[in-house]
Design goal:
Blueprint: E1 4-8, H1 14-25, E2 28-31, H2 32-41, H3 45-56, H4 62-74, E3 82-85, H5 91-103, E4 110-115, H6 118-126, E5 128-131, E6 137-139, E7 158-159, H7 166-180, H8 182-190, E8 193-197, H9 202-209
Parallel strand pairs: 1-3, 1-4, 2-3, 4-8
Antiparallel strand pairs: 5-6, 5-7
Helix pairs in contact: 1-9, 2-3, 4-5, 6-7
The structure holds adenosine monophosphate.
The site of adenosine monophosphate (AMP) has 16 residues, from helix 2 and helix 3.
Length: 214
């Protein structure tokens, strides 16, 4: 069984890589960002509270994420293996993950750290749109849809995330440096960290990652 963590700054390409890897290896894609956006879309009081963190580029409190991730990892479709995209993002979350995995008698197989510099992150995220229906990501300049605003695959509407504005991207990056970057050393110490170049795009990342998943 394979359990993967994708580690990297916002815009490093975690979600795009996840969408290719998960069908190929039969993994469940767990994006805590997507799960949180679903709660926000429900319009509940909790959703409003979560949205206030997301729009400021801050992290949602660990306790809330812990509850969410526990439920997902215990679900039946997580039993074949998971790809965690955007979790863990803090040392306490990583400790929590180790604990949950050991309770489930499994462990993290590989942690791929996707290295990308800030200028590329900004240009990627300000140009990012994705399909509201199937989630396919586009880059308005490098990978534009054939018809503006419409998904090539399913005809769904393309939307831009509210937190993909330059000011918020910079706050998210600061949060990443402070809270998430320490996880690189954390996983280096466990011997499970593999660094890949996230700047070249998803096909190159796939070539770098596949040999470690045999
Ligand atoms: P993402 O889609 O991964 O870029 O996440 C969007 C936003 O959701 C982040 O900027 C955080 O506010 C929040 N978020 C996602 N994952 C986590 C997490 N593991 N811990 C705390 N906040 C998170």
């Amino acid at each position: 069984m394979i359990n993967i963590v994708l580690l990297g700054a916002p815009g490093s390409g975690k979600g795009t890589l996840a969408k290719k890897l998960c069908p190929e290896y039969g993994l469940k894609h767990v994006s805590t960002g997507d799960l949180l956006r679903d709660v926000v879309a429900s319009g509940s009081t909790l959703g409003q509270e979560i949205n206030s963190y997301i729009t400021k580029g801050e992290l949602v409190p660990d306790a809330l994420i812990g509850q969410m991730i526990k439920e997902v990892l215990n679900s039946a479709d997580a039993k074949k293996g998971v790809l965690l995209d955007g979790f863990p993002r803090t040392i306490p979350q990583a400790d929590m993950l180790t604990q949950i995995m050991s309770e489930l008698h499994t462990k993290i197989t590989k942690v791929f750290y996707m290295r990308v510099e800030l200028p590329l992150i900004i240009s990627r995220l300000v140009n990012r749109v994705s399909c509201k229906t199937c989630g396919r990501p586009y880059h308005l300049i490098n990978v534009p849809p054939k018809k503006a605003g419409i998904c090539d695959d399913c005809g769904g509407t393309l939307i831009q995330r509210e937190d993909d504005k330059e000011d918020t991207i910079r706050s998210r990056y600061e949060t990443y440096l402070k809270k998430t970057q320490p996880l690189i050393d954390y996983y280096k110490k466990t011997g499970s960290l593999i660094e890949i170049d996230g700047a070249e795009g998803v096909d190159k990342c796939l070539l770098e990652v596949r040999p470690f998943l045999k």
